[in-house]
Amino acid sequence: MLLAWGTDTPVARKGCAQWVFLLGYFAYKRRAGGVPSVRRQHDESTIMKKSMSPLFTAVVAFALAACAAKPSPDTAPPTEAPPTEPAPVEAAPTPEPAPAPAEPPAPPAPTKDVLDTAAEAGKFATLLSAIDAAGLKDTLKGPGPFTVFAPTDEAFAKLPKGELDKLLKNKKKLSELLSYHVVSGAAVKAADIGATPTAKSVAGPELALTAADGTVKINDSATVVQADIAATNGVIHVIDTVLSLPKPGKAAKKKAD
After folding, report:
1. Which of 79, 136, 154, 178 has its CA 20 to 30 A from that of 145?
2. On the CB side of 40, how many CA atoms lie within 13 Å of its CA?
3. Which pLDDT tens digit goes with each residue over 100-151?
4. Does residue 164 carry a pLDDT above 50?
């Protein structure tokens, strides 16, 4: 009971003093043999001070020690833990915008004319031989600009048997036929053909040009299989068929839709 008051507070110290007084009082009463009356309290208090027995002294000392004792860690009142703050919520990182697709690099500038470019391609041996035989080599080496619809070796192979030999023996007719595959004064790109329905050939007659669904045709008979091969003096469009000269007085016509 005394240890319960071993708390270092003003209220506890006051309680301990009251216990000391009561213990002293009852020790004296036990020795004197009775409870004094109210009239005799003053005198008895004086007598108690003068005649404390060793037992009384021990009891008082024990009570004082109990009052002065500091509370043990086990009996200390619990302390409230500070409220735990919630962990800060980190904002989700903002995704970086996807980089814009890189533009394709521009094609290198051409360094060769239409004849040297065709020779480098490796599929126009028959055409180049015919140009040389027709005497057009110097013309196509000029400043231009030229648009050349160039038949491949396979296209010449589709001619009727013996037709090419006849052409090679007739320089005038061969020159006219080859000149019909060339437009002078403009480098007509495939993207421009839709706005250029016809183009006048070096031979004189016009060529009918059509573009539909990504396919470019010449006179509705030859198909451009590779377009826009750039050269220093023009552009080459590879075609799969040798064009035929129209009959005199008749221009090439597009087929009806």
Report:
1. 154
2. 9
3. 777 777 777 878 999 999 999 999 999 999 999 999 999 999 988 999 999 9
4. yes
DSSP assignment string, the chain = -TGGG---SHHHHHHHHHHHHHHHHHHHHHHHTSPPPSTTHHHHHHHHHH---HHHHHHHHHHHHHHHPPPPTTTSPPPPPPPPPPPPPPPPPPPPPPPPPPPPPPPPPP-S-HHHHHHHHTS-HHHHHHHHHHT-HHHHTSS--EEEEEE-HHHHHTSPTTHHHHHHH-HHHHHHHHHTTEEES----GGGGGG-SEEE-TTSSEEEEEEETTEEEETTTEEEEEEEEEETTEEEEEESS---PPPTT----PPP-
Q: The tokens 């009996």 sit on which residue? A: 75
Tell me the average pLDDT across 229-233: 93
pLDDT tens-digit series, residues 73-88: 455 566 777 777 777 7
- Residues 87, 75: Cα–Cα separation, whole Å: 34
Q: Which residue has the higher pLDDT, 254 or 208?
A: 208
pLDDT at site 4: 43
Q: Considering the chain, what percentage of its residues have pLDDT values greater than 90?
A: 42
Distance CA 222, CA 216 (A): 9
pLDDT at 257: 42
Q: Per-residue DSSP letters for 37-95?
A: PSTTHHHHHHHHHH---HHHHHHHHHHHHHHHPPPPTTTSPPPPPPPPPPPPPPPPPPP
CA distances from 185 to 98, 152, 177, 180 (A): 45, 23, 19, 14
